[in-house]
Amino acid sequence: MGFVVAIVIALLLVAALRLWRIAVRVDRLHRRTEAAWAGLEVALARRAVAARALAAAGGLDPDLAAVLRSSALAVESASRPDRADAENELTRALQLLPISIDPGLAAELFETADRVMLARRFYNDAVRDTRALRSDRFTRMFRLAGRASLPQYFEIAEYQLPKAVARVSARVVLFNEDDKVLLMEGHDPSAPGANWWFTPGGGVETGESLVQAAVRELHEETGLALAESDLHGPIWWRVARISYDGAIFEQTEHFFLARAHPDPDKWLSRAGFTDLERLAIGELRWFDRAELVGADSPVYPVELAAKLPAALAVLQAPTDASPTQIH
Q1: Residue/partner pairs of 272-276 with CB below 8 Å, 24 or more apart
Q2: Which of 42, 99, 106, 143 has its CA 20 to 30 A from that of 243?
Q3: For domain 164-325, is the CATH number 1.10.3210.10?
């Protein structure tokens, strides 16, 4: 008799231990689901902010800007049960955007789309695991989930980014004898009116090294003929997603430093421009640091003004340091 009692007690202890472990796991999965939802909310909120910024920046059709703004505001005020419908309305508004939008805002929007996609999948994975354990017969029989509500999947239409063409480019930060840097003012031919300033340079052609491409592009775009040994670097690199002439490019840019020959009136020329460049590139201008900060249009790379002192130091005392990433 005592043996049977011992067996029963042992079985009860084993069952209790199993139930305790299941209860602990259910609790952990619910916590994981709520943490994943918090991360998803942050990603969704960032997308809404990017959409509002894009609507407020100008350059969009006024009706589209109004729809985008109202959709973003609706997302920010939506309750959790209504959030998916509001997010789908915002996605539909985003799908109406033209290919050519402000490059900086476009990059932010593309990044938020990636973050939303990853956060949503992470959340739905947590929901799947939680629901699977809660469907276990022991969990249901002994009500191990307590009063916790059953988590729901979050399904929304994802913003489909236009397919980007990968491209590698070489650019030159060109200084004159007054330590001013040469920039070109350009715009997207398919969306005139939104201008920006950028450094000379362009795509690396088949069989070219980065420095060869930098020398060639500098000559074609400015008329300045330098030797490869006149360039220092690359000292910086960045990845930029840009729209140009109806296409999207994901461009890895490598930046070299160089000192221009004196008297630019003798060599500065647009003769090497292609027909498309003549259409898309306007003024060439020398900027000091203060003028970069106060430029009338966006300057790319964004950190150029902040990095100018360090670039001049490298130009005066070249080093073999590895290139650093900038934005």
Answers
A1: 272/219, 272/220, 272/221, 272/223, 273/220, 273/221, 276/189, 276/245
A2: 42
A3: no
Q: Which residue has the tokens 């003798």?
A: 266
Return the residue matching tokens 């498309």: 276
d(CA 250, CA 203): 12
Give the model confidence (pLDDT) of 3-26 as tens digits.
666 676 766 676 667 767 877 788
pTM check: above 0.70: no
Q: How far apart are CA 26 and CA 37, in angstroms?
A: 16
| Residue 31 vs residues 54, 131, 176, 248: alpha-carbon distances, Å | 35, 13, 60, 40
Cα separation values, 224 from 175, 217, 235, 265, 267, Å = 12, 10, 21, 11, 6
Taking alpha carbons only, the member of 92, 93, 75 closest to residue 84 is 75
CB 199 within 8 A of CB 255: yes
pLDDT, tens digit, for every residue of 51-87? 998 888 876 788 888 999 999 999 999 999 999 999 9
Under 8 Å CB-to-CB from 37, ≥6 apart: which residues?
Answer: 123, 154
Domain ranges, ordered by start, for the chain:
2-141, 164-325
* CATH number for the domain formed by residue range(s) 2-141: 1.20.1440
| 204, 213 Cβ separation under 8 angstroms | yes
| CA 292 – CA 308 distance, rounded (Å) | 10
